Amino acid sequence: MPENLPFEGRLALVTGSSKGIGAATAKALAAAGAHVILTGRDVKALEAVEDDIHAIGGNSTIAPLDMSEPEGITRLSSAVRGRWDALDILVLSAAYLPTLTPVTQIDAKQFSQAIATNYIAPQALLAAFDPMLKRSKAGRVIGLTSSVGASPRPYWSAYGSTKAAFENLLDSYAEEVERISEIRVAIVDPGATRTDMRAKAYPGEDPATVKSPEVVASRLVGLMTEDFETRHRERVVNHD
Predict the structure, then answer these.
(1) Fewer CB in 10 Å around end: N or C, the chain?
(2) pTM (global) more than 0.85
(3) Rounded Cα distance, 151 and 158, in Å
(4) CA atoms of 179 and 222, how far apart (whole Å)
C-alpha cells in the first residue's frame, strides 16, 4: 500500500460495492487506508472485491445486504455498532434501474423495487448510522445520483423520480446536521460511466467510449479529503 494513507484508522461503508462504481470506490478507499464495509447482494462478487483489497494490503469486512429489505439494514447497523464506535464515510452507491418505459406503462413491481432501493433504503441507512456519523471527527456522506433526477427525460421517469427524491432527502439531511455536527454531505453525478447499469440503459453503446468506474472512484476519494461545504454538488466529467 502507498505511504500516503489519508483515511488510515477511519471506517467507511459503501453500498452497492459488489461491482461498478461502488466496488471501485471501496477499493480506492481501502487503498487510502480506510477499513471498508462492503455491502451488496452478490456474496461471490463481494468476496472478489475483498480479495482485491487484501491483495493491496487493505482491510475490509463483507456485509451481504439486500437494500430493499429494511430488516437487513437494521441487522447491519446493529453489527457495525457492536464493533465500531464511529462511521467516518458513508457512500450511497447502490441503485436499481427499472426498465425504461413511458409513465403510463411503468411496471409496478419494478417501480416498487426502485423506490425501495433508491429512496427508502438510503433514508433507513441515514437513520441507522446517523449517531455513528455524528461521532466522527469529519463524517462524510456521499450520494451518487443521475442527471435524470434534476432533468426529466422521456422513458426515464421510474428511475429519475426516485433520484429526485433521493437528492431532496440528502439535501434535507445536510441542512439538519450542518450546525450540530461535523458531517458534510455531497451529491455527485458520475456522468457516463462503464457500468452494468449503463450497458442496460444503452445496449448499443461502445463501453470504451465512456470513462471507467475507477475515474469516478478517484474523484470521490479526492473529494472526501477536501473540506467542502455541505450540500456540495458536482458532476464527474473527465475520462480515462
Answers:
(1) C
(2) yes
(3) 13
(4) 24
